[in-house]
Amino acid sequence: MDHPDQTDALEEAAIERPFLSNYLLFLLASTSASASEEFHATVRANGLRVPEWRVLACLHEEDGQMVTRLAPLALAEQSRLTRIIMQMDARGLVERRSDPEDRRRVRIYLTDEGRALAEDMIARARDHEAELLSVLPAGKGEELRKLLKEVHAKLTARD
Amino acid sequence: MDHPDQTDALEEAAIERPFLSNYLLFLLASTSASASEEFHATVRANGLRVPEWRVLACLHEEDGQMVTRLAPLALAEQSRLTRIIMQMDARGLVERRSDPEDRRRVRIYLTDEGRALAEDMIARARDHEAELLSVLPAGKGEELRKLLKEVHAKLTARD
DNA sequence: GATCATTGCATGATATTTCATGCTTCCAGT
DNA sequence: ACTGGAAGCATGAAATATCATGCAATGATC
Question: What does the pLDDT look like over B119-130, one tens digit per residue?
Answer without folding.
Answer: 999 999 999 999
